[in-house]
Design a protein that fits this description.
- 46% of the residues lie in helices and 11% in strands.
- By secondary structure, it is α+β, with helices and mostly antiparallel strands.
- Helix 3 runs parallel beside helix 6, helix 3 packs across helix 7 and helix 3 crosses helix 8.
């Protein structure tokens, strides 16, 4: 499966992405806008699934408008979660790498709902990606979905309008490129090495098993 590449869309992030890209060439590489006092907490950052003390950490850079990311999360990740995450063998880390403005809006909506709702919303967004990702009014779908999750409309609007809330999502993309050379989604960092594109369950297992402690056996 060919990896999705939309680096050209980075320049389309209205009011935020172009300045961020230029700032990469300066010191510091990117300065996050301070959030207002009204901005919901916690601010966006990496979100983890699984035990903090799991022996192996896997990092995924993902974009919520990415078709290959949706495929991984709907078809493959449930198997990964059952075999490696739930038994406490893998700590799965999700880091934002938005490919376009709609992906930025969706990531902000998921973070805005709070850590306790994050995983469920990510699953919902990916399972229904074709319903909203290419819609002329993606925000309307996101509003409805986040509202059903119990997030007040005014809270979501505050998350979208405050660059102090959305800048950390952009920073995650910049840091992924700087630290690991991420330039496409999905991209996985396993054992310190970058793997681009969708990983089948078999390939994921092949990469993770050598990193497990002796005697550790995935479920199933």
């Amino acid at each position: 499966m060919k990896t999705t590449r939309r680096t050209a869309t980075f320049a389309l992030f209205a009011g935020a992405m172009a300045p961020a890209a230029r700032a990469q060439q300066a010191q510091p590489p990117f300065v996050v806008t301070p959030p207002t006092d009204a901005t919901p907490r916690p601010l966006p950052g990496e979100r983890t699934i699984g035990r903090e003390d799991a022996p192996v950490t896997v990092i995924e850079y993902h974009s919520l408008t990415c078709g290959n990311c949706a495929r991984f999360h709907t078809e493959i990740f449930p198997k990964v979660k059952r075999a490696f995450v739930e038994p406490g063998l893998v700590r799965f880390v999700l880091r934002d790498f938005p490919l376009d403005r709609v992906a930025l809006d969706a990531a902000a909506a998921a973070h805005c709902a709070g850590p306790e709702r994050f995983e469920a919303l990510i699953s919902t967004f990916y399972a229904n990606k074709e319903s909203w990702a290419h819609s002329p009014d993606a925000r309307a779908w996101l509003r409805r979905t986040v509202s059903l999750a119990g997030v007040p409309a005014e809270r979501l609007e505050a998350c979208w309008s405050d660059r102090g809330f959305t800048d950390p999502i952009i920073q995650s993309r910049l840091e992924g490129t700087r630290q690991f050379g991420v330039d496409a989604t999905p991209s996985f960092v396993i054992g310190g090495r970058l793997h681009r594109g969708v990983l089948s369950f078999e390939r994921f297992s092949e990469l993770v098993r050598p990193l497990l402690p002796a005697g550790a056996v995935p479920r199933g």
